[in-house]
Structures are given as C-alpha cells and as structure tokens.
Fold each of these.
Amino acid sequence: MKYAMVIDLNQCVGCDACTVACKLGNDTGTDIRWGRVITEELGAFPDVKKLYVPILCMQCENAECLKVCPTKATYRDERGLVLIDYDKCIGCKYCMEACPYMARHFNEAKQPPQGVPVIGNGNLRKGIVEKCTFCEDRLSDGKPPRCVEACPYDARVFGDLEDPEADVTKLVQKEKPLVMKPDGGYNPSVYYTGVK
Amino acid sequence: MSTGHLNVQSETVKTCCCICGHNQCGVEVRLENGIVKEIRGDKDDPVTQGAICPKSIASVQLLYHPDRLKVPLVRVGERGEGKWREASWDEAITIVSDKLNRIKSESGAEAVVMARGTNRGSWIRVFNRFANLFGTPNWTESGGAQCFTPRAIAQSLSFGGNALEWPDFAKTKCVLVWGTNPPATWPPKARKLMAARKRGAKLIVVDPVQSNIAAKADLWLPVRPGSDVALAMGMMHVIIGEGLYNKDYVERYCIGFEDLAKRVLDYTPKKVAEITWVEEKLIVEAARLYANSTPACTEVAATLDEVIDPIQLSRAVAILGCITGNVDVEGGNIFPHSAGQVSIDTNAFIMPDSVPAELRTKRLGGDAYPLLSKNLPVNYPMAHWPTILDAILTGKPYPVRAILEIGGNPWLSIANSKRAHEALRKVEFLAVADLFLSKTAQMADVVLPASSWLEQNGLADSSQATYGPLRSRQKLASVGESVSDIEIMIRLARKLNLPEFWNSEEEYLDSLLKPLNVTFAELRAAGGTVDSPMSYGKHLREGFNTPSGKIELYSGRLKEWGYDPLPFYREPHESPYSTPELAKEYPFVMTTGRRVSTYFHTGLRNIPALRDVKPVPLLDINLSTAESLGIRDGEPVVVETPYGQISLTASLTEGIHPRVVGVPHGWADNSNDNLLMNNQVCSVGIGTTPLRGTLCRVRSVKP
C-alpha cells in the first residue's frame, strides 16, 4: 500500500475550500493549517502568471521527521503513512526543523472558541506537533482526504499507487508529475501536474 | 440515510446552502444525534455538481457560534452603548410595529425606511412586498444602485432579460470574464468555467488585479479601474472594423448597428490603450479571439454596476455579445428560465402599487435617479441610500424617522461611512434583524435574532445562478429563539395588520409551488428538486422583450428618457485625467470591492476557520511601487483619500499595475473601505456611487 496524491495546478484556483474543509474536519486550532495554498508569481507586470500551490504533509518515503524524533512519536503505520502519536510527542519541534516542506505545526493550545463544538475527528491537543494525515481516519471507509472531496475543480486525485487500476497510479505513469524539492531525495507522495 | 452506530444516530440530508444568497449550492449535511457535523458539496446537485466554497463548509461554526443572538434585545442604555435587556418575541415585535405605525400616522409611511442586505434565504422580494404593503416608497438595498440593478436595467433595455447572468459554459468555446472572480464568488459557475477551459475553451479576463480566474486566462487585460467602457468600445472597434461581427445575426436580430458602428469609430485601439492602460496589441488580440471563437459567452458581476456609468458599461459588455451573435444561443448567454414556480421578481408578487401614487413620487432619490427609483424598466424601484442619509441628517425633503434593516450592515456597507454613522446615530428608531450584534445592530433600538440557512426551509430559486432546476432547503437545526427573516416579516406583518401577506412560512412556500401542483412538504419528500432543461433560441424565434422586438443596440427608450442611446465612455469623476491636480496628491487609482472566497460582504470575519485563512485585510500593491514607498510585504500601510483614511496590510504582487492599488471590502473599524469613499457624486440616472477608479495615496506606517 502506498497512498499518494496528484494535484493539478492547472485546476487549482486558490479558493481554499480544501484548507477550510481540512480545518473543520480535523479540528485544527487558530493559525494551524495542515493544508494550505500558497501563491507563487512568475514574471513581472504585465507578463506575470500567478500559480496557486497547495502544500500539505508530503508523506515522504524518506521522511526526515521520522529520523529526528527523539521519542518515536512520529512513526510509520502499517499503511505506510507517517503519523504522530500525540501521547508520545513532547513538543520538542525537531521534526518541524527537519521537515523540508514546513508541513508541521506546533499546537500552542489556541483552539476554536468556546461554544463551537468539536465537529471533526477531535484532534484537539496542546503542546504537541501536528500535521496532515491524509485524513487517515477516513481511509478505512474508502473515503478520500477531505481536501480531495472539497475541491470544486477536481484538482486533486488520491489513491494507492500499488493499485494499478487506481486513477492516481495511471496519472503518475502518464503525466510524469513533478514533486517539490526533488533534489532532496525525500521521495514525497504528493505530486504536481499542470506546471508549465 | 440513517444508521445506528455506537448509539450515534447519524444521518445525511441533502439541502441547499444560502450563505451568500446567490449561488444556493446543493450540499449534503451530516448530522450526529441532531448536531450538524459536516457540510460538503452534493455531487448529484443538477446545478452545482458538488461545487462548494469555504463559507459553506464553515457554516457549522456560524450555526453554533457562541455569539449568535438567541433572543430579541431591546436597548436600555444610550444608543450604541451596548446595554440591552432581553425581550420576548411578542414584546419585541410589538415595540417595532407600534413605533412604525406611530411614525406612519404622524409623519406618513415615507418616514419609515425599509432596507435589506444579505439575502439569507430567497426573501428579498418578500421584504420588498412587505414594505410596499406597509405603504412606504422608501424600500432600499445595501446593493441597490451598486449591485445588479444597473445591469438588470441595461440588459432589459438591450435585449429584454438578464442573459448576462447565464453564460452557457458547457457548450462555449470562449469565456469573456469581465471584472468578476467566480472562484471567490460564484463557485458553481467557476466549476463549469474551469471545465470548459479544460476541454479547450479560451479564457479572456478583464480585471485590474490578476485574480484567481485571471491567473488561468489565455489573455489577461489589466484595465485601469473605471475605464472599462472604453475597453469594450475598443474591442467593438476592432470587431466591427475588421468585419469579425456576425453579420447574419446582426441583420436578423439587432437594430441600430449602423449607429453603433459610427459610435465606435473613435475608439481606436491606440486611443483606448492610452485610456485604459491595456496594451494596444492585447486589445486587438482579445477582440479577435473573442469574435473568432464561436460560440463565446460572457461572465459578469457587480463590477459592471460600480463604475461612474454602470448602465453604459453593462450595455457595452452586453452589446459585445450581441454583435458577435452570442445571445440566446447554445454556448453563448441564455435567458434565465425556471421550473415553473411562481416568480418573485414580478410586480404581481412585489405589489408596488400598494404604495399610494402620491407617495411613490416622494421616493427618496426618485427625482435625481429615475432609473433606480421609478418603475422602469425593472420591477423593483427603490430609494437611494445616499439620499436617505441626507434626509435623516437634514430633514429634507422630509424627515426619515425610522429604519427597519433586515440582513444589512449599512454602518460598513454604505459608501461614505462617516455620513452613514452620523445618520444611524441620529435616526429616531432603528430595528435590525441579524445573526450577530453587527456594527449596525449595535446602534439599534431593537435587535431581532435571525437564523442561518441551516435553520430554514426554503426554495433555492436564485434567478442569477440556478440555470433552471428548482432545488430546496430544509431546516436542520435551531439556535435559541432565532427565526428566519421571512418568519420575522410574517410576525411583523401580522402585528401591523398587513393584508395579502402569508400566515406562515409553509403557506408562503406552498404558494410559490402552486403552479407545480406540489406542496413544500411533498417536494422535500420527493427529493426536493424539480428539473428544468436548458432552453435556447426562444427570443430568436419569437422576438425579444423590447419595444422593437429586436436587440436594441441603439436604445430608443434611453433616448426618450434623455440619456445617450448608444454606449459611450465617460472618464471617472476623479482620475489622473479628469482631476490631474488631485492626482498629484493622490497618485494611485484605486479599485475597491474585491471579494475573497472566505467572506461574504461585511460578514463572517468572526468565523474561526475562515478568519484563519484570511486573517487581515490586504492591500494589493505592485512590488516596484511598494519598494519605492519603502513598504515590504506584510507591513502595515495607510490608504488615504480626500475623504478619509484606513489601515491595511500590504500584499505585494506583480499582478497589478504599478499605478493601481486594490482595497478590500467588508472589514470593520479603521479598515472599512467605505471610509475612503465619497457618496456625493453619483452616476447619472441611476445613482451609483463609483467604487472603481477613484484616487488615493498609500504610505508606510513603520512602527
């Protein structure tokens, strides 16, 4: 099993439906976005092109965060997902330093305001590091991550690269998508297409 | 679907969002033990196909927000002091209706203004009718002359209906997006547009800022804010001059082509490039691409309504589609139609004649702005907000003593906020219906707690975005004693003894569905949707709804009423060219009103998940300009006009002209863009405050 995501930057318009679906579904606190969309600009006015680039935990095959965690709180589960055991995390932030994609976030206990109920999977902790999990709580039900489902433009495709029939596998074979920071040797599982 | 799991009763209900009032997207709401847990796009919705926006997804936090108003409030301290007592609905409704009745008997119904804002559930025209039945000529909208009305009038004059609202993305080969950013404001339309683009349709975007959709364009035309009419005229110059127009269509369906051709002669690409700051070759290229892509469609929104001459701009953009043969055809722009329910956009529904004839002549702004305020040719004449503010402050031409405001926040949303603040402080009686103590509600005498879309039954029947099928909305939750805006109107109407109003929401909804021989309850039980296929060519076959039965490139009616019958360019009243002296002090051309995907007008900044994504109000400013002013990305800046100043955070971009800045709308306090605006100059005939293309300066405020 090797979960992966392909994001078509040609289809991403930077509307942040994904960002907000993630925040709601994963109950992330103020200032914490497991998934976010950054804007890159290529060129200068008037010959400029904005590019919206979603960033999330890249689920690296060669994960730097795994190597530096002193308490083994960051671990790889039986599905190959890099996850964090909040009970073991001591909030030392080594992993945040190590992550080449700035995909990890320290939870300083800023939470949604009192009275707004926990509505997602209840990831409410403090003093720990947290990050995108590919919505691992949904995968066993066969549901894709929330960001994939929320995208109005079908920019994201998710699936198991070891399934030859999966759309994600076919896309990776056909489109030869790019990864972010390919020279780092991290072998991330999030791919990008539509970059000219 | 209902499943029992670990004592959790889980169910998923299909309903329609109404967080923005306009798109009304089909959504699936998942509840656990009666608590709303998740909102996601409904991929089976015949109109929106699963498109959803951050606002809808985050509506759970709106529904359960701790600051929601749960009971009616009555002011006990000084106005704006924040001292309230809780009241029963009966008492609150009695206070409001007694006061409105007393003022009506003492000063006439015209002393009562009824103003609406956000359409939290397809009730705009219900409130319109309510005001007419009460007898006041002074019904108005925060949008009004700033949104939809000018372009509805222009479209009615040109081809007798709102075809610009329904671009047929599914079958088009080219989309011309004019001054709107559908990914932020119309996700279902943006979804269709992006699908068209993916299958090869060309995309031309006119916008001073490289917006989300402009970033995807084949051609981006960064027009100087407020000079749009010149750009449209320049494109017509090329299309007609090079013989690229649809001769057969023009001959068969249009009148006034020769006059139009003469009119656009002056608008050479060279001259238009000087006016609009768009490169000459880009103007020519865009005109050719648009005219040579058949069919092509046009997507517009409120930019067309917010310039110095909104009727001319809407006419010019509409006419581009007419001379290229793209109106009422597949892949072009088509006329809105419905599944057959009662239309709420008619005189029969709104009952404007309930206002006595002599009072109708007293409508505030009626004399100066007859296109807005008299009954032509749209069905909902309204009063003019800046004139209402004047009447409150000066007592002339007669005193305005009360405002009943439903869904609106004029403290922030009316141009020239200082004047709005003075008027809202001064008016004798202010009643506000809202979900929260908005800036306007804080000034009120009585606040009535309204509900969100998750708490309402209703029809999703927006004429702007439905593309035909009728969908519906179901009440899934309730918060305190808050009720829907329509229920508030029903309670007030009962107390005011207004005739010809409904006794319950259900009765109202059933009355709309009568032609379909179904009740609201039956509609919901049957899935909640009535399909309606796209229809094309009706007006090509049967004639257009204009005096001539043709598309009127030359408008005889405009001529008759004393306006120019053909589009022409008017320089903004304030600009580097019309006021060069002022431009020395205020060197930047400003565009305001830009929307982002996370907020709707002045609302939703208090929703945690949304605020997290867009935490501060951003000023779009060119990188080199910012550098010359010593401003770095993310630093605080002050924007100043002759009328006021506000504080924003600099967002440096190459996606804007070095002499243009983009100011966001809807933020409160010292980031409120309406503090920068003058409302004393309004457009001819229609009374629009120009919000695009005025002058400002920017300075760094380093700590």
Note: Chain B touches chain A through 50 residues (CB under 8 Å).
Amino acid sequence: MKKVGFFIGCNTAFNRPDNEASVRYALPKLGVEIDNLDGQTCCPAFGTMPSIDDAAWAASSAWNLIIAEERGVDIVTTCGSCYGSLSESYHNLHDKPGMKDKVNEQLAKIGKQYKGTSKVRLLVNYLYNEIGLEAIKQAATINLNGLKVAVQPGCHTIWPSKAYYEGESDAFHPARLRELVEALGGSAPAYSRLTDCCGMGAMRSASPERSMILFKKKLETINAELAPDLIVTGCNSCLMQFDMSQDQLQKKGELESVVPAMHIMQLLAICLGADPKQMTAMSVQNMDEILNKICGVKI
Amino acid sequence: MAIILSEMDKAFIGEIRERGGFDIRACVQCGKCAATCPLSLAGFPFYIKKLIHAIECGMREEIMEDPSMWACQSCNRCVEVCPQDVKPYEVLLALRRAAVRELSVPGNTIEGLRNYYKTGHAVYPKGYQAKRKAVGLSEEPPSTLSFPEMLEQLQEFLRNSELNEVGLFPMKKEEKK
C-alpha cells in the first residue's frame, strides 16, 4: 500500500476542515495510507519566517520535512501556499550553496538534522502522477456527466516552476486540474484568465478592496466565457476566496448570482462516495443545488 | 515630492543584496514582471519593478512608508518571467527583512509570527474546534497543538533563531506550572 504524510496546513485545519476530511476520505479509497506527521507546524507562511530570514525560513520548513523523513514518507499538501513555502525551502536547502549546513547548525541546537530524503507534493500532482487518471476514473462511483467546471489551479501550485520537481509541463498553461475534472466526467474548458491570481493571500489582509479588484475581474471572465456549474480549485486558499468573496459581493449587490466552489479533493471525495454534505460542511455558499446535480438525487 | 538622488540612501541596495536579493543589479527594468504582478494589476503604487528601481535609487524611506511590500502575494510570477534571473521575489523578501529590522511591520504580520511561536500555527482563528468536530475530525489537528513537548522544542528553536534577534515580541521561556 502507498503511504504519504499529510501536511494539513493552518487554513485547512482551522477554516476548511471539510477539505481535510475530504483528503482523509479520498486517499484511502485510492489505496493510499495517511501518516499524520505528528507534531507538524505551519509551513511557514510567507508573511512569517520567510519575511524574517532565509535560513530561518528553510529551518522552519525543515522541521516538517524532518518529521516526514523520520517516517519514510513524502509530504502531500492540499494548500498551495504550504506547497509553495515547503517546496521553496526544499529547493533552497538543496540548491543554495551552504544553506543545508547553515540550517543543520541551527537544528542541531534542538537535536535535529535535515537529511533531504522526503519530497513535497501537491495533491493535484500526486493524484495525476502517482494514482493516475485511469485509476481515478475506475474508482469513482459518481460520474459528473458533463458538468461544466471552471478550474482555478492557484499561483503557488505552478510557480516558481524551478522549485517544483514534478510541476506542470507548461507553467503558463496548467492542464492537470482540468484533466482530473475530466477524469471524473466533467467538462473543464480553458478560459482566458485561468492562471490569474484570485486575490487571496497577503493582499486580502493588506487591502481587501484591492484584493477584490483581482477577484472580480477573474470571476467576471469565468462567468462571461464559461458560465460554469462549479468552480474547482487546486488550492485551499483559492477555495476560501471563491467561497467567501462571492457571498460578500452578492450581499453588497455587486454580483447577481454565485457559482459554487469546491477544492478538487472535496469533489473527488464526493465522487468516491463520501457524504456530500459533510465534505462541504464549511461552505459559506449554499451547496444544495450543486450537490443534488452532482449526485443525481436530492440529498 | 522631489527626489534628490544625491541625498538618497546609497547603502540600501547593499543591505537588500545581503538579506537575499543578491541579483538585484541584473535588473534592466524591462517590465516583464510588472505586466504579470498582482500588485500592479490591483493598483498598488510600489509593484515589484518599481520597488527594484526605488531600491537602486536608495529610496529607503519612501518604500518603507508604503504598504505595497506587505501585500505581495508571493506568487512568484516575477521569478518565472524574469529574463535576467533577478529572482525579484527574493528582492521583495529581502526588503521585508530590512523593514522588520526597522520595526516597520504591519500588525497582522506580528500577530502571525506570535501565533506561530505560541502554537506552531501562524493562522490560528478562534472556534475551530467545533468546526473540526462537525466534520468528524479530532478537535485539535495532529500538529504541535497535540504534542506539547514538540511545541516546546519548536519554541526553543525559535528562541535561538533570527526571529528572537529582531525582537518583535517577547519570546521568554515559560515557567512550568
């Protein structure tokens, strides 16, 4: 049986535990055992240790990488930001001259040592490369029957491509999330702003108004070009933005109708037979209609 | 506002290079990063291309007083498209590191770091236990929150790190009760 270390990340654990529950449902169904990486911490987020010091950032990520290597597993993440921070640290530890020694000097003070034997993997990439589209198709008990989906891969899931050893083959035309949705029976056409930033992240904290400029532009394009039934993200932060912000815009009268949003792991779990309400329990949006449509029955 | 270049901070670029933005001098201001930077698309005055130019001009105060650097999404589009391999995002991080040492830091950044030190999580919202329980998960995730001895070890590491050096908040070892 395959085994991976599940790096949960703060936002998934605390704000979207339904997405965490989806990962915990879906992976075993696909023959993957989950190790909890006991004692894991923040990745750390870009606004924290990375904004203090290079080596302290790498050492903080190494805390998590070491837990994985002690258990002999690779790390998988459902959050783009965690994937980004951990992967950049991994890249810096392996490719920046002297970084690994510097980090190990810091870690020796608490009796730890970074070796570099565990890799960091985004769940989208893990599903695509390790499980495979065909196996996913075979395992699914629900077919999306041509449901129209707009995908939102997420910035940190694609760039900087040099930090991602199993990244997309074309970093400006990411295809994997679309192919995963298609394997589940959905239709996931390209659209012109597919790789645009959704506005979540540091910008939303620094200036919600400016973050909304990016979000609205992206959403308007999605609605004008695709008018989809569902938005599917590859990143937990994008999920939060598409869930919360459409609701806020609608309440302000700036948006007529909302498009329900899910993370790919939520959609996958539902297609593998999970309780659809529980897998989307933290949505601010009303998910009833889309869940009925996906499941083909009133739930 | 008049900018008199001869009166600007000539040491600034050296500090940025030391703190991680080593390749800043390779920038030719071509603007590829500006065309793709979320900061510029959302209308922030100092998006990455302008930040680099301003650092080269030694405009330390002007940049430090502006919130743009803290709104950077860390998306790394700039790193991806830069034809000169400046690694602009590393310049931006170096800039934040310089700002932190002047204690020119937004409150939510300090809050995130304090949360990280106290719990192991930078994002630590109230009331999550009920949410986790509602979807059938343990109230605490299997992180440092569930393993107090590992949290203590993390805190010891952080007390020995640059985070303690910059002194944004007190990081004393808590007395055992």
Note: The longest helix of chain B spans residues 88-101.
Amino acid sequence: MKFAQISFVFRRVVRSLRELLWTHLLTSGTMAMTLFIFGGFLLIQENLQGLLRGWGSQIQIFAYLENGLSPADLQSLAAEVRAYPEVESVRFVSKAEAWESFKKTLGTQSGVLEGLPPDILPSSLEIALERAHRQRASVAGIAQRLRGIKGVSEVEYPDEWIEKLGLLVLGVQWAKWILGGFLFLATMLIVGSTVRLAILARKDEIEIMQLVGAPAGLIKAPFVVEGMVQGIVGASLALGVLWLLYLLVRYHLPASLAILPSGDRLQFLDAAAVSLLVFLGWLLGAGGSLFSLRRFLKTW
Amino acid sequence: MIQLFRVSKIYPPNYPALTDIHLHIEKGEFVFVNGPSGAGKTTLLRLLFREEEATEGQIIVNGRNITRLNGARVARLRQAIGLVFQEFKLLPSMSALDNVALAAEVVGMSRTESRRRAFHLLRELGLKDKHDARPPTLSGGEQQRVAIARALVNDPILVLADEPTGNLDAEMAEETMRLFLKVHEKGTTIIIATHDSGLLRRFQHRVVLLQRGRLMADSKTAENKMAP
C-alpha cells in the first residue's frame, strides 16, 4: 500500500469517527456490554479460583509421632520429610504446643481438661504440600509413605474435604471454558449484527469505491481500523465499569455477605485477563468488520 | 480497443440478456449503444467494466482479455475506465471536490495532487463555485457534471456512460452531451448507452442497436438485421 493510500485510510477513519460518532459509540457500547459480561465472568472465576487456592493451602497432613524420640531423632525425621519433593513446608508441633492449641480451641469449655496430664497429646509434624500435589491421590500416597517411617505412629489428612475441593476446582475450570465459550459466541453474534448495521449505512460508499477501482484492501482497511478502535474503546469501557463495580463490592460489601476468609480481599483481573479482554475487543471489532464486509463487498 | 467475440450473458434461472454479440470498437471512437428498455444496453456496459461476467464468449479491452479476472485485476481495469451513471452515484456526505478526488486517491495519488486535479476538472466543467457543495444541494445537471469529472480524473482510456442524460431535462442533457464530445476530442473512447433516439439524431456518431439482447444494427458496418 502506498503512503498516499495509508494516509487516505487514516483520513477516512477520522472522518467516519467524527461524522458517524453515534453509530460508532453504539457499536462500542454493544461491545462494552458483552465484554463486561465476559469480563465479569472472568473476575468471578479468578476470585473463585483464588478462594479455592486459599482453601487448598489449608490442606495439611498430620504425622503423629511416637513418644520418647530424642531431639536428634526428631530433627532427622523432619529433615527426611522435608526432602520429599511434594512437600512445601514442615512444622514441628511439640506436646506442649499441641496442649495449648487444644485448650485454645476448646475456649471457655477448656475446664473439661482439668486433671489430665499436659503431655497426653502426641507431638506431631504439620506437613503442607506443594499446590500441584494437593489432590486426593497424591495426598494418600504421601500419607502412605509417611506411615512407613520409623517414629511415626499415625497419619491423618482431611480425605473427604480434599475430594470435594478437587471437584469444585474441576467444576470451575469446566465452567470457565463452557460458559466462557458460550459468552464469546453470543458476543460475536451481537457484535456482528451491530457492525453489519453500521456497515449497511455505508454500503453506497463501498459500492462507489469499487466502481472507481479501489483495491479491496483499501476498501476494507478503514472499516477494519474503525472496528479495532470500536473494540478497544468497548473493552476499555467494560474494564472501567468492572473496576467501579469491583471497588464497590470490595469496599462497600457488608461483612455478613463476604465469602472470602477474613483478611482476604477480592482481587481485580490480573494483567493477563485485562490484556485478554482488550485483545478480544480488538479481535471482535476487526473480525466483525471483516466478516460483515463480505456481504457488501462484491468479489470476483 | 474493445472486442467482443460471440458474447452471451444469461441471468439465472434462464434469462438471456445478451446473445451472441460480435462487436469491435476502435480506440478514440464515440459510440452510442441504443435500444429500448431491456434490450441489454446496461448489461453490455456492465460486462465491459466487469461488473458482470460473460456466460459465453471473450471480451478484450485495451489488449487484455477481461472475460475472467480476479478482484485485483478488476480494480486495475476500472482504474483505466471512467464510469458515469444515470443516478450519478455520488456520496452525499462529501463535497463535489472530494467526490471527484476520491477516484484519484484510491489509485494512490496524493491528496494534494488529487484535489488539484479535481478542482481543475470541476472548473473546466463549469462548477468552479460549487466545489465545496454537497451533491444533494446541486441540480441534476450539476451532479452529472461532478460524476463526469470523477470519471475523468484518472485520465481514462475509456468512458462508459449508462443513460447519463436519463435524469436531466433537455437543456441539461444537451450540455452533458457536449461535455462528452469535448472529452472525446482529446482522444478518449466514449461509449454511451441510451434509449433516447433524439440524442442520436442531434449527435451524429456510430450507433449500435440492441434488441432483446441481440445486436440488430451497427451504423459503422451498415449491418442491419432489423425487420423492415
């Protein structure tokens, strides 16, 4: 394309954006609405996954130890477990710590413990696992290996809880693809119709440009660039509204409605999700224009 | 310049718009394609600027076979042809000057040069004071002059005009025809499709007569297949 033709495309875009401002705003608004729904879904999904990650970090294996182990035995035992590649961290809980913790858990009812010796509870290792190994099969395998270690009397882990959490994570991941796919298709259809209407209003222009010998690329280019601008504006609008909504929920949601554990805050979309939304806007605008142009551009 | 060999055009499902046309037009000729409505005049012109594809036969324009062309070659063909229509086909949101300059800009001419040429042509066609006017504010004759200026802005080798006086009163039609003659004097080949027999009488040039899609008479070859 010659420089004069590039400048021609640029001028047509500026002219069209100025003259058909409301048509372009309507198209951008439609894109913004659909991208808002898509972005809202991403936001919910991302926070839900964060929530699940938080819950997942609470999955621990408790290895109760035999009485009478020397400090050197304890140290080597902890080192052995720490060396497992699936293990993220190991914390030693002494008998005294276990007693204090149990008393604290009972709270006002801790009187029931009166008369019991404070070393009645066994010392233990609290083992946290790497994220990739927080599934049922992995946890069971590690527990089995721990049972074989000399000095370990008993091993416990929240079996049922891990299974439910695993199903929930899987459910959210499937929902992301299925619902996300439906939303994307719906967005394509809505945006396609809106762009088609906008192009319909300019079909005479397309016809005349073809009659005077404009190459197909030169006819399409302004529409595609306009589509990209509409898409990026639409995505920015959607992100702006999502941001406002996010601030509203984060700072004004009553504590009773909060679903996240205390201390955790709702997170906004990360850079990758923001980029995805802007890219989708760009793609929808450019793709919608190209797709709709096919109907009005005579081909040979 | 233009050669048609046994050209036929059949519209679906089975409507023969043109049948077995043989025609040869020399460079620099001025030709009227005449005939009643439905005779095939518009179809013939549409085949020449490749808006339609011939069902049968071969069409040569300026030494090139245009019977089968892809999109890029169609665009290049049209850059060498000036087109004028009965309904003007101007963009109402653009000024007369921009409508004319558009045709030059799409072939890669700079904006300054396109506008300079457009301005020069509009002045030559008597629209010096109307270059900023938008088509809806112009009379039919003025709009047709803008369309003619657009057809001429790329110095075409051929001008095809389909009923260019169809929407004009007698005086404007006469004036428009004089403009075509002026262009023809510079050596441009002109083909005008018209059903107006009065024009043929006033402007004595070669006439090709079509009837029901068939070439019935050609004043150049004195061929006459019409029934007495």
Note: The first strand of chain A starts at residue 60 and ends at 65.
